[in-house]
Amino acid sequence: MRDNPVLRVVAKIIIPMILLFALYVQFHGDFGPGGGFQAGVIFAAGFILYGLVFGTEALRSAVPPGLLRWVISLGLILYTGVGIATMLMGSDYLAYGALAHDLIHGQHLGIFLVELGVGVTVSAVMVTIFLAFAGRNDP
Amino acid sequence: MIGTQLPALQVVVPLLAAPLCLALHRPFATWALTLTASALSMLVSILLLGQVLAQGVIDYAFGGWAAPFGIAYRVDLANAYVLLIVTTISTVVTIFARRSVASEVEAHNQGLFYTAWLLCLTGLLGITITGDAFNLFVFLEISSLSSYVLIAMGTERKALTAAYQYLIMGTIGATFILIGIGLLYMLTGTLNMLDMAHRLITVADSRTARTGFAFLTVGLGLKIALFPLHLWLPNAYAHAPSAVSAFLAATATKVAVYVLLRFVFSVFGVDFALGTMPLALGLAVLGTIAVLSASTVAIFQHNLKRMLAYSSVAQVGYLALGVSLATPAGLTATLLHLFNHALMKGTLFLALGCIAWRLGSVRLGDLKGLGYRMPWTMGVFVLGGLSLIGLPLTAGFISKWYLVLAALERGWWPVILVIIAGSLLAVIYIWRVIETAYLSKTNKTAGAGEAPLSMLLPAWLLAIANLYFGMHTGLSAGIATQAAAALFGIQP
């Protein structure tokens, strides 16, 4: 599809918006509909669109599989890390209240970080799955 | 401070190590990390068992949300005991896994292998420790999905079909379990098992409760591999990498049996589950058929891993018979057999892993004269085999002894005959191997020596444990008796 100028131009315009919208869904998850899972999938959709239009080879050079592995683990480590941090602060696992001076702030911060972890892992996993299926015939 | 955090650490340690393994990706580094995480969780489970023995049931509220609303972990004797089994087997088999996996799994997949291993361990530990029905389902999915991956990494292409078959069957089982939990949630409005048990007392005699119970037991029957729902198991164990066969055979079905016990005894209550509902009859009939038919089928297998897999189906039959007796003694026998069967099947599968490492095959015909070429490995196999048969002074004898006593107490003579018949059939299929290895003319495949020490040592460790727990039953039978009494609600 690389030869089709309309697709190429539209994709280039749309991809930044998709990524931006994903970030909105991610960070507005505290107050409205949204959160890590949805944002992760939308964020990955931007990359998958890039892969569809410009080819898996281009996508692979943009996000190398080695990097994806790190990103997948980073999200889960962030999630469990928040839990361990609250434990180290003398509270129970994932008791966000311990993260800040007052309870409400702690809860906000905790949810924020945990959802970020979910978003990071989900988006990297989605791109990995896409590459695994679309790149089956690649050398 | 760390003492109060043990229930969370039990699951968090392997859960944190898994993504680290994925990121590291180097075979040796990931193996070392897996071993560390597994040994740490074993330490945690030992400490937990000590705490439970000293001060009784431990409750842990996640995120500080109190029990019926938040997710709570609840450790009592029964699950502390299962946690110890799972973490010990995982640690011992991980030591074994380095050389075995290096020869059976491609180098670029080994990092992923250990990641899946840790996730499987996380799932099994989570299922065991949680006090929340839905949390249990989530962990069940984590352990199942990662075990499909582990099985698919087997050397032959058939491993993919086996994993796919297990995936389909496992997913059906998990769906049934989810429907069961959903119905119970609908009925009681709670997912916390303790709370659910309290609320079920008044509404147990409803169609919803009975349907939920039926869905749960059938779904768990699939996971346990109870006859006739065992069809996924022989292929899965036969084609998985050796280390995975040993790990899953010794832990996965055990954890599923524990879940059944938890729902039967702690959530529904003995009177409903084994009295009002015909579960005891079902387990007795299916357990009997499992012991007799699977042992008979095992005799005719040429692939030894498949033979042991059928033997596992038969052992599940013993576990089911123990539960069907519906007495504390029967439950003790089941819990004890969980422990002892994990030991003997772990031993036997590790011995086969050593053979597979050296010969690249576990077919009976290739074992001719192996008793002289790999004496230490075959020694492990013989000890494990004797324990499986149930010879006195081995762990297998202890569990059969308790089962026979429990059956006598109820006056169930046919059950005793079934146990004896099952043991005799086990003699036949173990003898076939011993005969081939020691009494037939040596094959001319030269250069076959012993397996490396890092594989023999864990195998011998388990083999000696079989003997030790055949003579010193303080830990195994002692805790099993107390745990059974606690599940029956009898105060010591």
Defining traits:
heterodimer; A: 139 residues; mainly alpha; 76% helix; elongated; B: 492 residues; two-stranded antiparallel sheet; 20 helices; globular
Protein model, in words:
The complex is a heterodimer of chains A (139) and B (492). Chain A has 139 residues and is mainly alpha-helical. Chain A has one domain. Chain A is built from 5 helices and no strands. In chain A, helix 2 (36-54) runs parallel beside helix 5. The radius of gyration of chain A is 18 Å and the shape is elongated. By secondary structure, chain B is an all-alpha fold. Chain B has a domain at 278-492. The longest helix of chain B is centred in the last third of the chain and has 32 residues, at 328-359. The radius of gyration of chain B is 21 Å and the shape is globular. The interface between A and B is medium-sized, with 22 and 17 residues.
Short account of what is shown:
Chain A is mainly alpha-helical. Chain A has helices at residues 5-27, 36-54, 56-62, 65-88, 103-134. Chain A has one domain (5-134).
Number of domains of chain A: 1
How would you sum up the major sheet of chain B? Answer: 2 strands, antiparallel
Quaternary status:
heterodimer
Strand proportion of chain A, as a percent range, falls in under 5%
Helix share of residues of chain B?
over 70%
Structural class of chain A: mainly alpha
Would you report the number of β strands of chain B? 2
* DSSP helix fraction of chain A: over 70%
- Chain-averaged pLDDT of chain B: 89
Low-confidence stretches of chain B: none
Radius of gyration computed on alpha carbons of chain B: 21 Å
Q: What is the residue-mean pLDDT of chain A, rounded to a whole number?
A: 88
Described by the principal axes of the CA atoms, the overall outline of chain B is: globular
Q: Strand arrangement, largest sheet of chain B? A: 1-2
Distance between the termini of chain B: 30 Å
